[in-house]
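Researcher: Watch the backbone:
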Amino acid sequence: MAETGERGLLARLDEEWAGTSAVPVPAVAGWAAALPELAGCTTPGDVLAAVRPSPDAVLGFLLGRAQSEGPDATLAGRVVVQAMLGKMVLLARADRRSGLGDYLAQLWCQLRSYPLTRRPRSVAANLWMDTRKAVRREQGLGVEPLAVPDTLLDELWTLSQPPADALSVRRVVATARQLGLVDDLTAGVLVSVYADGLSSAEAGERHRMSTDVVRWRCSRARRRLARHAVVLAAA
């Protein structure tokens, strides 16, 4: 999608959200009664604000409502989309083949089918990864076997204050570099893969190395960062 098209879509989404986010909704009152993390919430904007301190609990609850086919399903899905919007923008801007509309359409499909029972942790990160994979499949591109399990997503995605985004991934990587946990080249590879959303092949092209070397550097770095998770989280 051209930059002007992306801006137009973002403007429409922002306008829609601005018109609804501060309006009390009976469904939100019901959510507040059902989930302690949403206590006191009366508007969609209140629910969105509750995502940051309790991302898995709130997003998991909203996904459950979005998948319920109940009268509040669309609203629940819309709040999830708003929570993930910044991440979708980053993915679209790093993709020369697909635009923001493509990512949002796939995000909606993913949130309606997300396996809550099997993957209750790192919900935002998993949605991000699943959406990216779905877009790549739609493009006819192979999906790299660099799928990151939830435990490692926790280490790289939610080391900073959740829900993390490309900025917090960059912050974690920068801190790891300052502590001498990774070298400059590995830091660049981590940013390319986890912040910019590149595949192993694309990251290899950017850094002039093979796909296998990209995977090896990411795997080695993840293990090392995991051993220093407490230090990185406090940075």
